[in-house]
Amino acid sequence: MHRLTPEAFSKAEKVPLVVVLDNVRSQHNVGAVFRTADAFLIEGLCLCGITCCPPNAELHKTALGAEQTVDYTYFEHTTDAIRALHDRGYKVYAIELAHDAVTLEQAICSHIAGQGVALVLGHEVFGVADEALELCDGCIELPQYGTKHSLNVSVTAGIVMYAWANEFRA
Question: Could you give the domains of the chain?
Answer without folding.
Answer: 6-169 (3.40.1280.10)
